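Reply to dn_fold:

You asked what the input looked like. This is it:
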Amino acid sequence: MGFRAIALFFALILGFFFRSAAQITGASCPESAQYFSKDSVNVVTFGASTVQGVNGIDFQSYLTTNFINCYIGKTINIQKYGVAGETTGQGLLRIDNAIAGKTGFIVLLIGANDAIRIEAGQQKISETETNMRALIVHSLNQNLVPIVCTLQNFDDRKDPRLRRVNTQIKLINDIYKKLVIEYGIYLADINAVIRRDFSLYQDDIHPNARGNRLISFVLFDTINKIIAEKFLQFTVTQNYPNPGRDITSIDIIMPQSDKVEFKIYNLQGKAIQTVLNEYLNTGKHTIQLNLSSLAPGVYIYRIISSTGLYAATKKMIVIR
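and this is what came back:
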């Protein structure tokens, strides 16, 4: 075998390896996963056949893996309540049983069968709006955090009827977006991500493995956004580096907006420097301390919010 043939053989093997590796790349972990205030991630997925799973493929298995890999030490509980062929009206009849005693998030992915019935003149789109509104209200009454999903398009490339169904899909998605704003809840815009990439489908509407993996990413990102906005644990990190010489940094994680006072004390308990006395919003804030005015030694820094809800005290060492 010539040199060029051998080189081509190894190139093909390496190309296959890297393509395979790219296909199994996991979800990127958000920084907020480190500061999630709950012991468990609980997600109810509610809908029709895409939620139920088709031919042994579903998005929940991918979503579970995403959370297990990123939310270390947390219990992950992803439940699915999907019934193939259901409309929003049929789903409404079983929503209370599905969410009884549940906590956390609920993913509402339902309505494609409504679009079929609307196109056939068997249902009005106003019924879909009324039903989704009720699904949202029932979820809120259970103190769940609703996530409404837009619906993916049908593969209408060879079927004029499905083109008409997709017209109804767009109208339903517009309604869902309106309801999300009205109730101040969250949207997982699956339609915008999948678009019309029918290579992600296993039939006219149901996602294949790649499509379900993509749906899991959309939901994972949406839930992470909610956690970053609503479910962070107040955290003050140890300064880094410690010991510090000239500059050291401290991260403050705020679960909600509050006024924060940040002071440095000597070991006698005397306040020697006010670093911060200002409002901070929800999220992570990195504070840099200039240590040049401090003599070598051990100091105490204390961070407390004006509401008294959040407080932390730690020691730091200054060297020269």
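The longest strand covers residues 271-280.
Hope that clears it up.
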